[in-house]
Amino acid sequence: MMLRTVSSSPLAPSVKVKLITAGFHTAADLTEVQPLQLCKAAGLSQEDADEVLRALRDEDAPLQQGAAVQSVTALDLLHQEEALGRIVTFCSELDSMLGGGVPVGRTMEICGVPGIGKTQLCVQLAVDVQIPVCFGGLGGEAVFIDTEGGFVVQRLMGVAKAAVEHCAALAEDEEQRKALESFTVEKILSGVFLVRCQDHVALLAELHLLHDFLRKRPQVRLVVIDSVAFPFRHCLEDLSHRTRLLTGLALRLARISAQHTAAVVLTNQMTTRVWSGQCRLVPALGEIWGHASSQRLVLHWEGTQRFASLYKSSSHRDASAPYVIT
């Protein structure tokens, strides 16, 4: 039985009101409904009806009655994770702390104050995910969702040029030299798909469409949202509604990472919280959002040195590593 409720789905509020008013409260209520029937029953446009059915049915397909229960052993999971690989950061201390790099098939949140290097790290990952397999990379592509307008293509070009030069210096055999022929700055730029989302409505709509895009381009192994906090910080006065939207967002991102074997990397801002009479910097969006990702990396200053601290991980202990932005 499908348990997803319409009210908890990340559909537009106006669409959810029409569905609930028409008597559609869960995804199960829409199992046998056709788009034209939904248009008439709920007063939706053809486009909205198609989007509702696609969103709810796709997300809850594994929960339909009669679906076979599939199981794997812990050893199978270990082999699967090892086969998926990791995205290196080119910072040896950081890669070591993360167990070899950013894991594919999981979500990671990168938090920090402005200017600490969150966007720079994401740009680095968007390049590194494209490193050829013969150099220890994944040979993939990246989707970069920019919500703050901080993406600068010149920065991407600089990182891409450095990556190409680094791999060229490491080339030792014919296979690697052959791979360098297609690992160029132009090829790297064409492997980063940029999406600009200016508010939470655009962000949620883009994530609805992302499943179809990733199905058509299975070589995408990285999805970046820079940042997840910006669209939600000031546009929603109803905190309970914002919490529901964020919960739906977290679930969708987890599905994207698992179903499409892609690393999902989110950046988050820091906010001030008073604790025991003292002000502390903590990641934005509240404590509930802290459970949205499987790993949380906090970038911070210690004097004049930048540090990355792993505060939450399902597979590695808390640790810190210095890093430098060049």
TrEMBL record:
<dbReference type="GO" id="GO:0005524">
    <property type="term" value="F:ATP binding"/>
</dbReference>
<dbReference type="InterPro" id="IPR013632">
    <property type="entry name" value="Rad51_C"/>
</dbReference>
<dbReference type="InterPro" id="IPR016467">
    <property type="entry name" value="DNA_recomb/repair_RecA-like"/>
</dbReference>
<dbReference type="InterPro" id="IPR027417">
    <property type="entry name" value="P-loop_NTPase"/>
</dbReference>
<dbReference type="GO" id="GO:0000707">
    <property type="term" value="P:meiotic DNA recombinase assembly"/>
</dbReference>
<keyword id="KW-0539">Nucleus</keyword>
<protein>
    <recommendedName>
        <fullName>DNA repair protein RAD51 homolog 3</fullName>
    </recommendedName>
</protein>
<keyword id="KW-0547">Nucleotide-binding</keyword>
<dbReference type="GO" id="GO:0007131">
    <property type="term" value="P:reciprocal meiotic recombination"/>
</dbReference>
<keyword id="KW-0067">ATP-binding</keyword>
<dbReference type="InterPro" id="IPR020588">
    <property type="entry name" value="RecA_ATP-bd"/>
</dbReference>
<keyword id="KW-0234">DNA repair</keyword>
<dbReference type="Pfam" id="PF08423">
    <property type="entry name" value="Rad51"/>
</dbReference>
<dbReference type="GO" id="GO:0000400">
    <property type="term" value="F:four-way junction DNA binding"/>
</dbReference>
<dbReference type="GO" id="GO:0140664">
    <property type="term" value="F:ATP-dependent DNA damage sensor activity"/>
</dbReference>
<dbReference type="GO" id="GO:0005657">
    <property type="term" value="C:replication fork"/>
</dbReference>
<dbReference type="GO" id="GO:0008821">
    <property type="term" value="F:crossover junction DNA endonuclease activity"/>
</dbReference>
<dbReference type="GO" id="GO:0033065">
    <property type="term" value="C:Rad51C-XRCC3 complex"/>
</dbReference>
<keyword id="KW-0227">DNA damage</keyword>
<dbReference type="InterPro" id="IPR052093">
    <property type="entry name" value="HR_Repair_Mediator"/>
</dbReference>
<feature type="domain" description="RecA family profile 1">
    <location>
        <begin position="83"/>
        <end position="270"/>
    </location>
</feature>
<dbReference type="InterPro" id="IPR010995">
    <property type="entry name" value="DNA_repair_Rad51/TF_NusA_a-hlx"/>
</dbReference>
<dbReference type="GO" id="GO:0033063">
    <property type="term" value="C:Rad51B-Rad51C-Rad51D-XRCC2 complex"/>
</dbReference>
